[in-house]
Design goal:
By secondary structure, this protein is an alpha+beta fold. It is built from 22 helices and 40 strands.
Length: 749
């Protein structure tokens, strides 16, 4: 996402330079990927030449006296094209030009406190024949960066959950909060005509996928090119200017983050707006001139007879603004993010509007964005705004969260006062009453106290959060774990492959697999519709695996995992076979039950019907499945090796050294009966600097002697406080070889 620094400063009043702003944004979690238009040092300023004199000691040099907005400065210049009265760029002492820093210098006996620059030295062209002559409009004493390079553009990586930052106002709000300052929107005052918008247009809202829809009617517009300042801002951010009406909608979206759309009112049948889901497929032509096939259930904006826009994605050609447009309907709405995402994926297009709607927009600023756009259109086109706003739907209620200050401190590893947390959250637009926190409507990503802890951590500053030792408690392993491993080993020995599938499924999959649909647990925030329910059987997942492997005739797979109903979650085992292997499923179950010491009747097994195979798109003549409730039968499974049930152990950790290890190789000859583990233990015991020892060679040969072997190791020596010298490393190796010789009679090879 690209931002103009000058646009940010419309809201964020600061004297910080670009690098400081970029540093703050990165620290707050929005990484600055690039800065363009910022190659000219800000210390390079425009100066006016007020006097030129010959250099007393050099024929080809001159002395130029310039005014930098505060004082007169004399410097040495060799450019042949300078004249009194010119405005030229000067690099002050301490500024950087190309790859060097400007210093005060004495040139042929005359002190020079700066440097007049050529276009090549500014980096704007290859011309170095003389000083760069600036336009008279360039202000003396000001940095020439913006004048020569245009505005500075920040390219930020905005995470998908932060839709509130996809605008200049939203990012400025983040920067202002960091400084503890309030950010005020400009007041919008509209001059409305006596004619009512309610009489000019009606809205029929037929779907819950559009919770809010607002419209204004603007008459007598004059469609024309936008002014230069507006075009410049759009072009610097990659948007193509079209006309004053369309450009305003794009400008307000980049300014406030809310997508808008303008319809030619006279192209709407009966001056009506209908928001609905399509009942049948149809083909339309979008504003980019491409014919697109819309499917049923997509949300569209229509006029009662035809679609005129794909909701939240793109308008259609049949209602576009053109040179003949006189009256317009200006739309500002809120659409369901999941619906927009699904439509966008099906159509294979992504627009600036869909990008924002997918991430959630600020419902509280919809009216403000609409009014600002209406005001700009009226000012740029001489139009009149009809009285009132036509509205359907309501703004959602703000979310309320408990401020769990103790939990937040525990999560962050801090001791932040609750009052400090409240100060941070208040600066971010949250309202606090006691322990209740009311989330601003623009923060769609905040719904839990853990989300509040993230906000507190970001603005408290991660640098203030000290280092704390992490306490880790190792746990003993239960016998159930090893019993499950025993089941897996038994099935693998019989030729089966283990699968691990998602714990989600769709209602359709549950119905096809003949599962209890009424007992499914619904996920409140599914990633997609296909993952709306928690599985109550492993069978559907196995069938999807078989369906996705059509080239294999005989498939033998199983899965052990959790299944869920509205009361409990349980461990389950499911087995599936296809082709010839399906005929052998009963024998597999019999062998497994014998091995596990459970009754064969514990398994429920069946063959899939032709309808089920067709529904799962399985092109195999036979598929058999079986499943068992493991929680019920695990206690009956025998588990012999009780030694594997380890008790909790105390584990110690050491910091990772900042200094690189030194690698040494050691080859020794020892008796064959000496085990590798004995040698490793002795090496680490004899040298605390030996942090890693790797065996890389071992062999026996007549040339070595009888009953002996050669064994070689890589030994990594490391110190936590410094880099070891060669001498210190050799001392450690001597200690190691002496210890091995004393303990095992080892000889160096």
């Amino acid at each position: 996402m690209k931002y103009l620094v000058s646009w940010l400063k419309d809201y964020y009043k600061t004297s910080e330079d670009v690098s400081q702003i970029a540093e703050v944004l990165t620290a707050l979690g929005s990484e600055v990927e690039s800065i363009s238009g910022a190659t000219i040092d800000e210390k390079i300023v425009a100066v006016k030449i007020i006097k030129i004199e010959p250099h007393p000691n050099a024929d080809r040099l001159q002395l130029a006296t310039v005014f930098d907005g505060e004082k007169e400065v004399r410097l040495v210049c060799g450019a042949p094209n300078i004249e009194v009265g010119q405005i030229v760029p000067m690099a002050r002492v301490g500024s950087r030009v190309l790859d060097f820093e400007i210093e005060e210098a004495e040139i042929r006996g005359v002190k020079s406190t700066g440097m007049l620059l050529s276009p090549r030295e500014l980096g704007i062209s290859k011309d170095h024949r003389g000083v760069c002559i600036l336009d008279d409009s360039c202000v003396v004493g000001k940095s020439v960066r913006e004048f020569l390079m245009g505005d500075v553009v920040l390219d930020l990586e905005i995470t998908p959950n932060r839709g509130d930052l996809l605008s200049h106002f939203g990012l400025s709000r983040e920067l202002s909060a960091n400084k503890g300052e309030d950010l005020q929107k400009e007041e919008i005052v509209l001059e409305e005509s006596e004619e009512s918008a309610q009489d000019a247009i009606s809205i029929d809202l037929k779907t819950k996928l559009c919770p809010l829809y607002l419209a204004r009617v603007i008459k007598d517009v004059k469609v024309a090119p936008s002014p230069k300042w507006l075009c410049d801002r759009l072009e610097k951010l990659g948007a193509k200017p079209i006309n004053n009406i369309v450009d305003v909608t794009n400008y307000v979206m980049l300014d406030l983050g809310h997508p808008l759309h303008a319809f030619d009112k006279n192209k709407l049948v009966a001056s009506k707006i209908v928001i609905e889901q399509l009942q049948e497929n149809c083909e339309v032509v979008t504003l980019d001139g491409v014919a697109r096939a819309l499917t049923d259930e997509m949300v569209v904006i229509g006029d009662g007879q035809k679609p005129v826009a794909i909701a939240g994605v793109m308008g259609l050609l049949n209602s576009q603004i053109d040179q003949d447009t006189v009256d317009i309907v200006l739309e500002a709405a809120v659409f369901d993010p999941k619906s927009i995402r699904k439509t966008r994926r099906l159509l294979g297009i992504q627009t600036e509007a869909s990008y924002r709607f997918e991430r959630g927009v600020d419902e509280g600023s919809v009216r403000y964005a609409l009014d600002k756009a209406a005001l700009m259109i009226a000012e740029l086109s001489g139009a009149k705004i009809l009285e009132g706003v036509v509205k359907a739907g309501e703004v959602k209620q703000r979310k309320k969260i408990k401020l769990e200050s103790k939990k937040i401190n525990a999560l962050l590893g801090t001791k932040i006062d609750k009052s400090e947390m409240e100060k941070i959250l208040t600066a971010l637009g949250f309202e606090i009453a006691g322990d209740d926190v009311w989330v601003p409507l623009w923060r769609n990503d905040v719904s839990l106290w853990q989300d509040l802890s993230e906000e507190v951590g970001r603005f408290y500053s991660l640098e203030k959060i000290g280092e704390n030792q992490i306490e880790v408690t190792s746990k003993s392993t239960s016998s159930d774990y090893f019993k499950k491993e025993k089941i897996k080993d038994a099935l693998v020995e019989m030729g089966f492959d283990e699968t691990i599938n998602y714990t989600f499924l769709s209602q359709k999959e549950a119905q096809v697999a003949k599962l209890d649909v009424e007992g499914l647990v619904e996920v409140s925030n599914p990633i997609q519709e296909e993952n709306r329910y928690l599985r109550n059987s492993l069978v559907a997942g196995l069938l999807k695996v078989i369906a996705s492997n059509p080239i294999f005739d005989d498939i033998e797979i199983f899965e052990i995992g959790k299944i869920f109903d509205k009361q409990t979650e349980r461990n389950s085992l499911a087995i599936a076979c296809s082709g010839k292997s399906a005929q052998n499923l009963e024998n597999v179950i019999k062998k497994l039950c014998q091995k596990l010491n459970i009754d064969q009747s514990a398994f429920e097994s069946r063959d899939l019907s032709a309808d089920e195979l067709s529904a799962f798109k399985i092109k195999k003549p036979r598929v058999s499945v079986a499943q068992i409730d493991l929680d019920k039968y695990l206690p009956q499974i025998e588990f012999e090796d009780q030694s594997k049930l380890s008790k909790p152990i105390n584990t110690s950790y050491r910091p990772i050294s900042k200094y690189p290890p030194i690698k040494r190789d050691l080859a020794i000859i020892v008796a064959k009966e000496i085990e590798n583990e004995q040698i490793l233990e002795k090496i680490k015991e004899s040298s605390e600097k030996a942090v890693l020892v790797e065996l890389f060679d071992e062999f026996s040969a007549p040339s070595l002697g009888e009953n002996v072997k050669s064994i070689a190791y890589h030994i990594y020596l490391e110190d936590e406080s410094k880099t070891l010298s060669d001498q210190e490393a050799q001392e450690q190796m001597s200690k190691i070889t002496s210890a091995l010789a004393e303990s095992f009679g080892a000889k160096l090879r």
